[in-house]
Structures are given as C-alpha cells and as structure tokens.
Amino acid sequence: MNRYDRLAMAEFALERAAGLAREAEQHARSNDSRHKAAPLAAAGSLWADIARTHTAIAAALPEPKLEAGRG
Q1: Nearest 5°: CA angle at 41, between 12 and 15?
Q2: pLDDT, tens digit (0-9, with 9 covering 90-100), for 10-45
C-alpha cells in the first residue's frame, strides 16, 4: 500500500466522520432522538481518529516514483 492509497483511505474515513457528525448534530437538536446523538458523535470521533492515523502513515511513506513516460 502506497502513500496515495493511505490518503484515499483517510479521505474516506474523513467523509464518514463528517457524515456522522452531521447526523449527531441533527439528533442533538431533536427532543425525540437526542439519545442517539452521543453514540453517533463517538462513532464520528473514531472515524476522525482513523483518518488521522491513515494521514500519519501516508506522511511516513515515501513518495511513489513516477514511471518512465508518465507525468
């Protein structure tokens, strides 16, 4: 797995974190489903941690070499 693969995984995890944060906020504003906000926020936090981890791994990996005739 190279740097770009890790960055793609980080982006996916970040999108999941953002989606869960939006959903948690919606539930936090509702009297009927406020109890769902904390678990969704916790799951979003976990996905944010995963995104940070993939980003840190990507930063530690070498830049892939371009093949001859490309880029």
Answers
A1: 15
A2: 999 999 999 999 999 999 999 999 999 999 999 999
